[in-house]
Specification:
The chain is mainly alpha-helical and 127 residues long. It contains five helices and two strands; from the N terminus they run αααααββ. It has one domain.
Length: 127
């Protein structure tokens, strides 16, 4: 397996960026495709797949979910994810609808979401 280039801090930063990206609703992600994010971060898609189980990535994803919806939303998403992983078809479907991977029962797509991301003094609106 090729070694990822960069200092420990740079790699940790890339992992945090990936985790925050995962925590966003699908329609708010920039770039929208994981392959494009891999290119932007300078890593392979395979690396991102391996990082999904990394503690730093999970913490960053949890932080993004908390920021977007507060602790209640975090608890709901955590419960939904847990039930989906346990094999509940209804929870898996709901999770996929929430992520925008499939439409609702009538095939409706989720309403667009505007997200404002603040990092230090910089602010960015994502439609």
């Amino acid at each position: 397996m090729p070694r990822i280039r960069g200092t420990k801090e740079e790699i940790a930063d890339k992992k945090r960026q990936f985790g925050m990206w995962l925590g966003l609703p699908k329609e708010a992600r920039e770039p929208s495709a994981q392959v494009d994010l891999a290119k932007k971060l300078g890593v392979s898609e395979t690396t991102l797949a391996h990082w999904r189980n990394d503690d730093e990535v999970k913490k960053a994803k949890e932080s993004a979910v908390k920021v977007l919806g507060g602790n209640d939303m975090y608890d709901i998403v955590k419960s939904l994810t847990m039930r989906a992983k346990e094999g509940s078809f209804q929870h898996q479907r709901l999770y996929m609808e929430w992520q925008g991977q499939i439409g609702g029962k009538q095939g409706n797509k989720p309403e667009p979401v505007e997200l404002i991301v603040r990092h230090g003094t910089k602010e960015r609106s994502i439609d």
